[in-house]
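Lecture 7 notes: from sequence to structure.
We start with the chain below.
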Amino acid sequence: MKIIRQGFLGFLLMVSAFAQAQQNAKVSGMAMEGATISLLHVADSSVAKLAIAGSNGAFEIDQLNFGTYRLSVTAVGFKHFISEAFELSAKQAEKKFSTITMEADNKELGAVTVVAKKPMIEIKPDRTIVNVDAGISNAGATAMEVLEKSPGVTVDRDGNISIKGRAGVMVMIDGKPSYLSGADLANLLNSMSANQLDQIEIMTNPPAKYDAAGNSGIINIKTKKNRQRGWNGSINLGYGQGKYWKTNNSLNLNYRNDKFNVFMNYSQNANKGFNNLLIKRTYLDGAGKDPVAFFDQPTLLIMTGQNNTLKLGLDYYLNKRTTVGITGSGFISPRKFEGISSGYLKNAAGQTDSLVVTTSDNSNKWINGTLNLNMRHEISKTAELSADLDYVHYNMQNNQLFNTKTYDADDMLRADEKLRGDLPASIRIYAAKTDYTQTFEKGLKLESGIKASYVKTDNIADYANLVANNWQPDYQKTNHFKYEENIAAAYVNASKTIGKWSLQGGLRLENTEYKGKQLGNPEKSDSSFTRSYTSLFPTAYLSYKADSNNVFTINTGRRIDRPAYQQLNPFLFFINKFTYQVGNPYIQPQFTWSYELSHTYKNWLTTSINHANTTQYFSQIFRTEGEVTILTEGNLAKMQNTNLTVTAQLNPTKWWSATISATGSYRKVRGIGINNDFNSENTSGNANVNNQFKFSKGWSAELSGNYNTAFEDAQFKIYDFGQVSAGIAKQVLKGKGSLKLNVRDIFFSQTIVGDIKYQNVRERFRQNRDSRVANISFTWRFGKNFSDKPKRNGGSSNDEQRRVGAGS
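Predicted structure tokens for the same chain:
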């Protein structure tokens, strides 16, 4: 393994580091009203950007990179128009087309097809884009499974997401915050079907207009929204079979005319799965050398659940310059967990002293409602004002029942205990923001905005023990926690291109105030805490286009990670008799400065090197009290992370395209004060390969895979793991439908094995889940699934939902 890792990193270090910056090129012209305008890269005919010709036939596509393109124009009932190749460069940054005349096509409507296709992975100057539908193996997958195989992204055993070896990711959905973190974010992403998704954007250093949260960057999950005029939509039906069944279905509808655009998305998925976890703990003597006891705990958890998600939206065009919109969405997600855990406590000779068997029958139900009001007004051709109001509401019901039986060495029953838990939670989030953009005559672009958010949570943990057939309150576990938080922010950002140079700089100011109160009970007194702090977050970008083949970029920025709401909750969560979790109200936010150099060669090879320094680094902490392991979190160290990423987009033949991405990381953690146990230093790597094959008669195929080398973080060490997926697809119904068949994790190799070291305990764990799944899906499109120019990033909150977290 060491030789492989060294060879892998050696290959990466042979490549120098620097990247491309986005230019301000533009294409405009006149075509038929409602025609679909596609700007295609000449190299592989992939789509660079899309637009719809307006009511007078005018179209404009701006914010383009320099390069060589063709223009494609399609309209129902007319023959396909495609232009000669043309180049956008610093000398000629704008291409204007006079009126494009299209010839009538006498063929039947069903024969109209679109020849442009999107690649699965697109590398942009400021982000990496995953086009979900372009990946055949994504059919039947969840949003989390798509993320797991995205370039530079890793997911640990608890569902925590990292980008290029760094945790602390802010996850957004349609430009709005997910409002969840930890296990709750993982549950949300595991309940979202991939067929709901259009694109996934991965940004490692977002500009100042975005919230400063997320030290490793932002992942923006964009759901499908059809912008074509008239009635159109799609239906998707899918079934998967691993060890257990999975099914996912969706319906997308859209109607658009000159005055309004209305859309509806509904998704339903249900599944059954398992989580198989084996924990082996070794307890050492006071010197930390010789074993004095052992503990083995195999756990099998069977999960069944379903998710129903509905999204409705309306955009109303008051006039040519003003658009107002309203979007409402929500989901209902009931889940059931049935588990059995056997804990074997052994002496130093490895002989079993006692056996503890815990059966659990737990259920939870998430209910979410979100309302967004938005407005966009073009003050002039060079100025725009936008505003958003958001309200988000979560209700969570969590019912637990644990039956724990203890046996001695002779298998005699010594104790039979039952614990019941009722853990409801309520979360309210209010947010508002406004943004102003002004472009001046000489190309200077100025952006500014303000934002305010208010979060209020109410969490109850009501536990009771069964004693003599009567349920009696367990006040040591019972708790009631309330939390409120206000964040006010303002930013300014400026950008300009001067010859071969592009410059951008921004500054964001955020003030945070929060307070928490733990209500008492007959055995515990009240407690409370408050805090207020103000921070500045500068960002800067500088790029240089050396020639038509090489573009270099340098950027830097400061970001923050605030603890999840439940990480501040000081009461105890019961996991099982030997494992508890407790919050820490004294956790401070962690801050990260990041620096990146990058280089793009001929738009197909991109290399980047990134370095990040994190102070007040907080992480999960394991400690022991007798035979019980307690999980908590705290600010324990300083962390440095340096990584080198290489991405190549290849077209070996006309029918074969490939994207190869690899990241090598060096990570150093140094404990603060007495936290020397958290010192770690290691190198790790991540590689992702995606092959797309396009054959005749509508056939296509995919072969993809990802691999993660071993890595360490504080008390954790995770060993290498990866997976391989493959699939085939066939276009049917004259191009209006498609059939896809795929198998994910073919070799059932996505098993996570790791070590945890804390105090005088050494722990080894092994975890796998129902990851090898065969899927078949059918999609029928009635209308065209093209989009206008991307809608502005909306939503007035970027960080709050990410941090909701209702505990494990």
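Points to note: The two ends are 33 Å apart (CA to CA). The CA atoms of residues 49 and 432 lie 30 Å apart.
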